[in-house]
Amino acid sequence: MKEQYKERLPQWYKDTKKFDLILTDDIDSLASCMILSQVKDWNIEYFYTFNGMGKTRSATKEPVGIDIALYKGKCFDNHVTMLHKDDYFNPESINLNVMDKINRNCYFDKFCGSTLITVWSLFGLPLPKSEVGKMILLSIDSTYKGYYYNRFRKRNRHYLCDVLGFDELYEAEEKHKEWEFTKVLSTYNLKSKIGVHRGILSTDIKLDEVSMELDIPLILPKNTFYQCKVFDNIDLPLNYNTRSTTKLTDISVNIFSNAVTGADRLKYSEEE
């Protein structure tokens, strides 16, 4: 990541203090967690969905959300969370959309990319050697799609090249057709979810094959996760009069995470 952008992000990620990681239910979160486990020695001790959260018996440290737009607290994230440029934002969120104050009114200027690609760049990992590896990295959370949609193409190039310093990835997009990325998604089951049954995690994602192409270990924790929070999962349509997420405090004081999932929808979880 270019230094001038690193300086605009919250700096807590440089701490020598150890944190516990909150994993969510997809490959974007898992791969990001694996990088943080490697470079920071932080472990996955929580598992989150919009409906609830579990934790292991060994969860003792301050938690960090990975690919979760936490309303408060430390997280790595890629979602749009603001409805207005003067809106509340989480000051501890490492998120390029928060950094640039992207909001509902400029939704199509957003960083349309993964949490993984942000973490990968922030910690200066070398890109995958193989072309397939680069395509997998672009396919996770559909980063590549920004290249094929006119409303996002300029922003796709800006964030990949000017911010993250990944010119090679932009060149990979130029070399391939959209259907080739769709095939990668299908081949490796990248859109499959991570599920939990009786506290044990499992997935249909082809983790071993993806690990080999990305050259990072992708391993689901073997620990049992015990329920510690239950959430109401709320999908709220937005209308012209919905100006600011500060109004969320009128809806609930128990918001755990929130994300603007389109120019006209807001999704959030609140503790029961």
Low-confidence stretches: none
Order of helices and strands: HEHEEEEEHHHHHHHEEHEHEE
Count of beta strands: 11
> Using only CA atoms, what is the Rg?
18 Å
Number of helices: 11
Give the biggest sheet. 9 strands, mixed
SSE class: alpha/beta
Strand content: 15-25%
Roughly what is the average pLDDT, rounded to an integer?
92
Strand order across the largest sheet: 6-5-4-1-2-3-9-11-10
Shape: globular
- Helical content stands at 25-40%
Structure at a glance:
With 272 residues, this protein is α/β, with parallel strands linked by helices. It is 32% helix and 21% strand. It is globular and about 45 Å long.
Word description of this protein:
With 272 residues, the chain is an alpha/beta fold. The chain is built from eleven helices and eleven strands. It has helices at 3-6, 27-40, 96-99, 115-122, 131-139, 145-148, 150-163, 167-175, 178-187, 207-214, 248-251; strands spanning 20-23, 43-49, 52-55, 63-66, 75-76, 93-94, 194-197, 200-203, 226-237, 255-262, 265-271. The strands form two sheets. The chain has a nine-stranded mixed sheet with strand order 6-5-4-1-2-3-9-11-10. Strands 7-8 form a two-stranded antiparallel ribbon. Strand 2 and strand 3 (52-55) form a beta hairpin. Helix 2 (27-40) packs parallel to helix 4 and helix 7 runs antiparallel to helix 8 (167-175). The mean pLDDT is 92.
